[in-house]
Write a structure and sequence with these properties.
Layout lengths: L1 H21 L3 H8 L18 H15 L4 H12 L14 H23 L15 H13 L1
């Protein structure tokens, strides 16, 4: 009898755990949805978009996760359906490669220019000679020197 009770409790535990893993949590759905953008709204991640299209997409992601699809498979599926514009991180190929190359190059170029600008030392500015003193100035200086 005890053997049957233990076996039955183990079966219920395993079936309960497998039922939980078959239904993805909202956090799992949002983890994938955060990596996709709404095709209808501009620059709105799928996990926060309020449109019906995005709600349908999240339901589709939920179904695919329940079927055992990986995050990459789901992202590839949506990219095939709607293009690379729905991906939060576009793949590094074709014209998208510009996004990965230009910013680091611009940063490097800016650092080089800043270094060269700060490295240049200003040349000393020659001080112009004072003009010859007039008679009045010469007399004034002589008188002041004589008095003090």
């Amino acid at each position: 009898m005890r053997y049957w009770v233990i076996t039955l409790s183990l079966l219920l535990t395993v079936s309960g755990a497998s039922a939980q893993s078959a239904t993805p949590s909202p956090d799992e759905v949002n983890r994938v949805a955060r990596q996709l953008y709404c095709p209808v709204c501009e620059n709105v991640p799928l996990d926060v978009c309020p449109t019906q299209a995005c709600a349908d997409w999240r339901a589709d992601i939920n179904d695919k996760l329940a079927q055992g699809w990986t995050d990459e498979q789901i992202k590839n599926y949506f990219a095939q359906q709607y293009g690379d514009r729905v991906l939060a991180r576009p793949p590094a190929r074709g014209l998208n490669l510009v996004v990965y190359i230009v910013p680091p190059l611009a940063l490097l170029l800016g650092a080089i220019l800043l270094y060269r600008y700060l490295r240049v030392r200003p040349q000393p500015v020659p001080i112009p000679e004072s003009p010859p003193a007039s008679d009045y100035q010469a007399r004034l200086e002589k008188e002041l020197n004589d008095r003090f």
